[in-house]
Amino acid sequence: MAEGNGSNESAAQGQGGQQFQIAKVYLRDVSFEAPEAPGIFQSEWRPQIDVELGTASAQMGEGTFDVVLTITVTAKVNEQTAYLCEVRQGGVFRMEGFDEAQIEHLLGAYCPAQLFPFAREAINDLVVKGGFPQLLLAPVNFEALYLQQRERAGEGAEAADQGH
Fold first, then answer.
1. Alpha carbons within 13 A on the beta-carbon side of 104
2. How far apart are CA 23 and CA 94, in angstroms?
3. Most CB atoms closer than 10 Å: which of 19, 23, 83, 133?
4. Model confidence, pTM
5. For the segment 110-157, what is each residue's pLDDT rounded down to a tens digit?
């Protein structure tokens, strides 16, 4: 393995000269609101938790991509919003030796999975600092979500083709 500092040591070399590296993990944006505080703390804590996930990616240069995982958590108690927490966790990834389909797959499934633990920790920290019980988000199967999204995109393309 090549010598490097910190995150540069995360480089992995695969078959046929493929290389994947997490160059940087960063917190792009956070938001926490507790609109009903402090009154909400007097309610029995039986929240309805809604979690929304989103990903976006952009090419920064040759073989370098920025991926942002957005997680929005809304907790409601008796139809009142206890808190709304949103984290946009970013990462810069370097990829060499992959074809376009492989890169799309890495950006859509593998990279968000690498960012998830960081986002999960940030959400838990914000929720606890907001005065609420800890929130440990369940693991997410980004591979399955990616495949579902591709399947839906394929169905949409087929429907558009049949309409013409």
1. 7
2. 7
3. 83
4. 0.83
5. 999 999 999 999 999 999 999 999 999 999 999 999 999 889 887 765
